[in-house]
Amino acid sequence: MANSFTKSAKKVLKTEADALEKLKDDLPIDFSDLVEFILNLTGRVIVSGVGKSGHIGNKIAATLASTGTPAYFVHATEASHGDLGMITEQDLCLLISNSGETVEMFDILTHARRFSIPIATMSSNCESTLVKAANFQLCLPMADEACPIGMAPTTSTTMMLALGDALAVALMEAKSFNAEKFKIFHPGGKLGAKLMTVSQLMHKDDAIPLVKTETSMKETLLTMSTKGFGIAAIVDEIGSLVGVITDGDLRRHIDDLMGKNAGDIASLSPITVVRETLVVDALSLMQDRKISVLIVTSADNKPVGVIHIQDLLRVGVA
Question: Which of 186, 196, 177, 187 is nearest to 277 (CA)?
Answer without folding.
Answer: 196
